[in-house]
Design brief:
Layout (H helix, E strand, L loop, with lengths): L4 H15 L8 H8 L3 H13 L3 E4 L5 E4 L8 H9 L24 H15 L4 H11 L7
Antiparallel strand pairs: 1-2
Length: 145
């Protein structure tokens, strides 16, 4: 499994919004500039996040984006699943219950299930607030993921 640019940039965008949540709605151009990400690329990510109701939007001169909830209510797993879809390391784990005709014969299935559980447990244990807190402890505000 490899996290795409879209997933990494979505996480950076959400972190930027979390860092600047006290400012209200944040313009996409400001996020793009701070994160050194193309505004056009962010414009492709916004609909996914908005459709999933993790962002609030406001149009107009004071328009922009903000988190719909507090940073402690978003996990890295939530954000990656919105942009990446399944985080399963193998296709047969995309369905629950497993639809693979070989699943009862597969001697390696337990390996992939264990990896999948470890991935989900890890990314679901880290919130945006955790990342912000960790960055503050390290004296960093530059989110390169």
């Amino acid at each position: 499994m490899k996290i795409s640019t879209k997933g990494r940039y979505a996480l950076r965008m959400m972190l930027d919004l979390a860092q600047h949540q006290q400012e209200g709605y944040v313009a996409l151009k400001d996020i793009a500039q701070r994160q050194n990400i193309s505004k056009k690329y962010l414009e492709q990510i916004v609909p996914l996040l908005h459709k999933s109701q993790v962002l609030k939007t406001n149009r107009g001169s004071r328009g922009g984006y903000m988190l719909a909830k507090s940073p402690d209510q978003y996990t890295v797993g939530d954000i990656l699943r919105i942009t990446e879809g399944s985080l399963a390391p193998v296709a047969c784990l995309d369905d629950d219950p497993i639809q693979c005709e070989r699943n009862s014969l597969c001697s390696t299935l337990y390996i992939w299930q264990g990896l999948y559980k470890a991935i989900n447990d890890y990314v679901d244990s880290i919130t945006l607030q955790d990342i912000l807190d960790n960055s503050r402890e390290e004296g960093m505000y530059d989110f390169y993921i």
